[in-house]
Design a protein that fits this description.
- It is a single chain.
- The chain is of the alpha+beta class.
- It has a single domain, classed as Sandwich (Immunoglobulin-like), CATH 2.60.40.10.
- Helices cover 17% and strands 51% of the residues.
- Strands 1, 3, 4, 7 and 8 form a 5-stranded antiparallel β-sheet that branches. It has a 5-stranded mixed β-sheet with strand order 2-10-9-5-6, with no helix packed on it.
- A hairpin with a 7-residue loop joins strand 9 and strand 10.
- The chain is globular.
- The termini are far apart.
Amino acid sequence: MKQTTFYARIALLAGAMLSSTATASFAGAQDYEFQAVKTDIKQGAGESVSVRLIDKRTGKTVPDAVIFTTRMDMAPEGMEMMTTTVDPSTSAEPGVYGFTTNLSMEGGWRFQVAAKVQGEPETVQGEVVFKAVP
């Protein structure tokens, strides 16, 4: 009987150690945030927009994320169905991701973006609002 209790305690302790190690070693998608580098963008075709991907735990930018989904629409102006193209462009600053777009109308434009961060199992998603100005 004593030996069974001893093994049960060992198993319980090992399970607790594994469980605490697993939860402490992973961050989640909520630990990241996209931020606009500049919010006021000139209205027109071929304009550049840039976002930073920030690790909220450290405050540092996250380089080498793989951006795989983008969408630009006028949801802030109540016109979510009005969309425009977004093409990737280069950025000289690590953790800053650049795009070229056509902000055909003045006003608010919502930029939705999704990325994979190395070592993270979840997709990081975010929204940034830009304002097209004359």
